[in-house]
């Protein structure tokens, strides 16, 4: 099985992702996307925005600032609660996130534990520093937000946002006043988030700078189970690891209908609906459902704002890990910002003729970078017969949609025709032109980066004005008229 280290090597070699500032030795937890990586990442974001914003009438988008008034983070609870527990070796000063240390040594989940719980576990299990076998000092909390200073002289202390969500809450009033939205509705945002992780690791999985795609979905607090779209998802089957199963030591998820999440009181209808939509989004874009599961949070790991939370986890080579979280955030954030800013953050409800603070029934929150990794792992395969990697990305996600080749690189008439075809296709799709090496080698290079179609111009093309289109997954070749080519490819990219 491909390890996360192998995936890093593959991504770097092919130009998907590079270590940030590599020529200066890099910086832990920071990554730069290369020419292919940026295409895949943009396609992921576009697919998400298309499905959850453009195709819906109940969602609008915003793009908030990364640095904002520091009171935002006091009100949201991040200054007091957005902390990680650090343990440090007394001998060699090796520092590690306590949660990761315990998970690595004992194989148990340790989210939400306090410093004293970690001290006890370290003592009871005689855990020593993995670097020098020294003893650990007492565990302590560390703030996860990056601090910054705003203004060149005597700057005001603020923070880089650790989630995009708060920008949605603080713009709630502006959006309501300008967009004519009515409950139930959502506000979406895609953008960077920053966390000063103690132990960035597993490549893009735990980074210090990453990107989120988030929605805050507001409903009337008395109507958490009045979801008019619920019938669309109620019979969908999903793999679930409930909190009860985890408490009983069960490791394997079980199949449940989305409706069962509601009857078993794991989620309200709105909450379950939004989780189902995300699960479906992953599957529609090619993730094998066997590699996806829902995991209900245990009470002890709930964030300070959450009433309930369900993650979507992906089966990475380093275990089942969260790629998406969806919390029931209640009225917590709007109430907090209302108290701190002294501004009313409520809506007038026509039905009851009363003002109401909307309830965040669902907060779909998805990491772009983790989604990127999951799609790559799921698509990666090695074809023994061909002797090369085939990256079976969904055509809509593929960085390059079509590669165009002249059959032979020493025939000017083939090159001329191929360049003409390439120029025409380039105005429709992201294309690549290649005339170097054997045709087999050119196919292999495109297979490895996930290009769904390769178009070859041969001598028949000159007479018949047609080309061969080779399919990445089946290697099947189809003859298509050049005049119909853009339409044919457009149809097959869906
Ligand atoms: N607004 C809710 C929120 O931020 P979260 O579970 O802390 O919730 C949401 O983060 C998603 O952001 C995660 O599911 C994950 O995909 C991504 N994420 C969080 N921390 C990350 C990190 N250090 N590196 C990469 N992605 C991260």
How are the SSEs ordered, and which strands pair?
Layout: H1 4-14, E1 17-19, E2 31-33, H2 35-54, E3 59-61, H3 71-75, H4 78-81, E4 83-88, E5 95-97, H5 98-106, H6 115-124, E6 140-143, E7 147-150, E8 156-159, H7 165-170, H8 172-179, E9 185-194, E10 209-219, E11 237-241, H9 243-247, E12 254-257, H10 258-263, H11 269-284, E13 292-296, E14 308-316, E15 319-328, H12 332-341, E16 347-349, E17 354-356, E18 359-362, E19 364-367, H13 368-379, E20 380-383, E21 388-391, E22 402-406, H14 412-426, E23 431-433, H15 439-449, E24 453-457, H16 459-464, E25 466-471, E26 477-481, H17 485-492
Parallel strand pairs: 3-9, 11-13, 22-23, 22-24
Antiparallel strand pairs: 1-2, 4-5, 4-6, 7-8, 9-10, 10-18, 10-19, 11-12, 13-14, 14-15, 15-19, 16-17, 20-21, 24-25, 25-26
The structure holds glycyl-adenosine-5'-phosphate (GAP).
Number of domains: 3
Stretches where pLDDT is under 50 for at least 5 consecutive residues are: none
Quote the beta fraction.
25-35%
- How much helical structure, as a percent, in the residues? 25-40%
State the CATH superfamily name of the largest domain.
Bira Bifunctional Protein, Domain 2
CATH top level assignment of the largest domain:
Alpha Beta
CATH fold type of the largest domain: BirA Bifunctional Protein, domain 2
The major pleated sheet works out as: 10 strands, mixed
> What is the end-to-end distance?
29 Å
Shape: globular
Bound compounds: glycyl-adenosine-5'-phosphate
Radius of gyration: 25 Å
Number of helices: 17
């Amino acid at each position: 099985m491909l390890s996360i280290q192998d995936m890093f090597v593959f991504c770097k070699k092919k130009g998907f992702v590079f270590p940030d500032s590599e020529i200066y030795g890099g910086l832990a937890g920071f990554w730069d996307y290369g020419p292919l990586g940026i295409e895949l990442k943009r396609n992921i974001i576009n697919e998400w925005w298309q499905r959850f914003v453009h195709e819906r009438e109940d969602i609008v988008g915003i793009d908030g600032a990364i640095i904002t008034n520091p009171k935002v983070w006091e009100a949201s609870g991040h200054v007091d609660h957005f902390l990680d527990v650090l343990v440090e070796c007394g001998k060699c000063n090796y520092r590690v996130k306590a949660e990761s240390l315990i998970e690595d040594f004992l194989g148990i989940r340790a989210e939400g534990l306090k410093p004293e719980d970690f001290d006890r576990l370290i003592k009871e299990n005689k855990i020593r520093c993995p670097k020098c076998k020294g003893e650990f000092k007492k565990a302590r909390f560390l703030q996860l937000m990056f601090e910054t200073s705003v203004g060149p002289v005597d700057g005001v202390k603020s923070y880089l946002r650790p989630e995009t969500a708060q920008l949605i809450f603080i713009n709630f009033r502006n959006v309501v006043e300008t967009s004519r939205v009515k409950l139930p509705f959502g506000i979406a945002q895609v953008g960077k988030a920053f966390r000063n992780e103690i132990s960035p690791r597993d490549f893009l999985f735990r980074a210090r700078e990453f990107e989120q795609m988030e929605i805050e979905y507001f409903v009337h607090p008395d109507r958490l189970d009045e979801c008019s779209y619920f019938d669309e998802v109620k019979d969908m089957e999903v793999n679930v690891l409930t909190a009860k199963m985890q408490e009983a030591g069960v490791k394997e998820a079980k199949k449940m209908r989305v409706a069962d999440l509601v009857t078993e009181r794991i989620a309200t209808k709105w909450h379950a609906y939004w989780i189902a939509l995300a699960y479906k989004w992953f599957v529609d874009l090619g993730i094998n459902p066997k590699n996806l599961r829902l995991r209900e949070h245990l009470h002890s790991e709930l964030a300070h704002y959450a009433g309930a939370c369900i993650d979507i986890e992906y089966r990475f080579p380093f275990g089942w890990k969260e790629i998406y979280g969806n919390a029931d955030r209640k009225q917590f954030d709007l109430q907090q910002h209302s108290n701190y800013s002294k501004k009313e953050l409520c809506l007038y409800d026509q039905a009851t003729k009363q003002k109401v603070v909307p309830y965040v029934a669902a907060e779909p929150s998805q990491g772009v970078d983790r989604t990127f990794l999951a799609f790559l792992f799921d698509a990666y395969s090695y074809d023994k017969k061909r002797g090369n990697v085939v990256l079976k990305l969904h055509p809509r996600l593929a960085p390059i949609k079509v590669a165009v080749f002249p059959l032979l690189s020493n025939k000017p008439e083939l090159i001329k025709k191929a360049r003409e075809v390439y120029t025409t296709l380039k105005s429709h799709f992201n294309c690549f032109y290649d005339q170097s090496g054997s045709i087999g080698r050119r196919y292999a290079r495109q297979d490895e980066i996930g290009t769904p179609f390769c178009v070859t111009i041969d001598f028949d093309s000159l007479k018949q004005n047609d080309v061969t289109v080779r399919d990445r997954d089946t290697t099947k070749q189809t003859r298509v008229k050049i005049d119909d080519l853009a339409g044919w490819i457009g149809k097959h990219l869906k």
